[in-house]
């Protein structure tokens, strides 16, 4: 009984240890995966918010500029500005009152056109000398010649903000050009419009989906907040924001997504959206604590669930061990008898479970132990003999071959943009297309190495001009089939690819496997073919100097030596690019 109890305890401990280890690993992986997943989703949420609201804000700015340009391009406005630019100070004062009605009619017509909801509060039309010709709020004698908005507005349209009693106003500035102006002409005036920022605030202050601590705000190039803060009052033009998201945008023109301290010094998860053309960066941020709170809850639930499962498994293991005690004790006694050399022992356990099957197997083992040992030795000899017979044996011989390699150019860059399935499909189309050309010219495809195809023409007779031309025609056919290959790839929505072809001639060693009909070749000729392939221009054919010597007397082809001094110095041979000599012959072959 002591034996069964100890065995039961050991089984319980073993099961619990295995269970706890497995659950610990699963829990750790689950926690790690859930943490990364929730952080990733939080980052995607903020990145999506910054992108959507940033695009909305960019569209709003561009719309306001375009609306201001409508007013600046009004023929009457341009005529009135041109007329008033040339008058004296005395005449200008009376003309302001005289022309005010004309200006007002055009401005009111413009407001009716674009709608009063855009929030125009004041529009000033200023001449090129800084005099205010018209203002919605009344006749003004202000001098804008030194005004920053005016000076910049003579050169370009832009949007800016300025503080006001209610927070901020948006400034939209647009140059005015003469009616008959041409590209490069100087502006004759500037329109400066001040607008309410309700539309901007609607984009930024809508905090739905941002939790309890999320906010979206904008910062200008002076690192000053231009919108209300969720945490501080009167932050507009008062709160400085010099965080990594703002720095990356204004320094490197790069958007930033990640964890960093915000303007409060609190760790947040943020995403920025850069608008350098407007001198603004938009930031969507949420406290890291709020972002990871669901992760902590999930971690707690995983740990508690694991503990409950462990306890349940321990109870099940304990009762299972108790039920195993009796038959296992009988097996132990039988094993001790077999250890003493008594092979007549039988357990005769009839529990109708795996223990009974084990008992039957144990009894059979005792009966046939000696016979089994003999059979095992015999089988071991047979297995060794079979293994010896199936070892691959190679026979080698040497012959003179033309060895060729066609390799896809820039395959690493191309495949980085494709899925694994598309990469396999691209390679399949490319390699099969080129293999068919080799076979059609009675060549032998040896193997493919990634995106490269190795082929050969075996036992080449260099005195047979017809056979030698066939080899070169095979390679040139690959070059001239570039357009047809692209059409095949286009049908399958694959990217366009380029390739390089190299050809060498010389002695090779041929390895023939007893289990395969495909031969492989080795030696310096093969190595040279791969080396010169990397120096080949795209969609071209290069050959070694051995091949050039064979073909140099053929009138159909021309050979151009590639001046690669390092190749000559390092390896002692040169390479040549091969082209057809007569264009009409090329056209005939292409057809």
UniProtKB/TrEMBL annotation:
It catalyses: ATP + protein L-histidine = ADP + protein N-phospho-L-histidine. Residues 402-533 form the Guanylate cyclase domain. CDD domains: CHD (cd07302), HAMP (cd06225). Residues 322-374 form the HAMP domain. Keywords: ATP-binding, Cell membrane, Kinase, Membrane, Nucleotide-binding, Phosphoprotein, Transferase, Transmembrane, Transmembrane helix, Two-component regulatory system. The keyword Membrane applies. Its main location: membrane. GO terms for biological process: cyclic nucleotide biosynthetic process; phosphorelay signal transduction system. It is a multi-pass membrane protein. One of its GO terms (molecular function) is protein histidine kinase activity. GO terms for cellular component: plasma membrane. It is found in: Cell membrane. Its EC number is 2.7.13.3. This is histidine kinase. It comes from Candidatus Nitrosopumilus koreensis AR1.
